[in-house]
């Protein structure tokens, strides 16, 4: 089992920044790629960003590219999402996810169905 706990969400004005963290515990040695997803009110959960096991490869949704940065510290078993230039449409519950499948050192799935473990989510609200 892998337990994921997100933190860092909150209320911020448009144009502001937030940094989300996701702390992993349990069988962390089994974790490979990790990702961030979000679900806005009344909408389906969508991909935000993903990072490979080594951290050498990152992937972003077009809507956040250039504004968000995903990173990880494997020594601390922690995943991060730095969010800059936030917009009201970024308002959502943000979830981190862990994939236990090794698909290569540059591999990180964009499909949420490929992730094995999920956190409980942290709410980000961006006011206009």
Verbal overview:
This protein is mostly beta strands. Helix content is 0%, strand content 48%. It has no helices and 11 strands. It has strands at 2-7, 10-13, 18-26, 34-39, 46-51, 58-60, 68-73, 78-83, 92-98, 117-118, 122-127. The strands form 2 sheets. Strands 2, 4, 5, 6, 9, 10 and 11 form a 7-stranded mixed β-sheet that branches. It is globular and about 40 Å long. The chain starts with a strand and ends with a strand. 34% of the residues are buried.
Descriptive labels:
128 residues, mainly beta, seven-stranded mixed β-sheet, four-stranded antiparallel β-sheet, 0% helix, globular
What's the short version?
The chain contains no helices and eleven strands. It has 128 residues and is mainly β. Strands 2, 4, 5, 6, 9, 10 and 11 form a seven-stranded mixed β-sheet that branches. A four-stranded antiparallel β-sheet has the order 1-3-8-7, with no helix packed on it.
Unreliable stretches covering 5 or more consecutive residues: none
- Total helices: the number is 0
Query: What would you call the shape?
Result: globular
Number of strands: 11
**What share of the residues lie within helices?**
under 10%
Radius of gyration: 14 Å
Task: Give the mean pLDDT.
Answer: 97
- Give the oligomeric state of the chains in this entry, treating copies of one chain as homo and distinct chains as hetero: single chain
Beta-sheet strand percentage? Answer: over 45%
Largest sheet: 7 strands, mixed
Helices and strands, in N-to-C order? EEEEEEEEEEE
Q: Kindly, what is the distance between the CA atoms of the first and last residues, rounded to a whole number of angstroms?
A: 40 Å
Output the structural class.
Answer: mainly beta
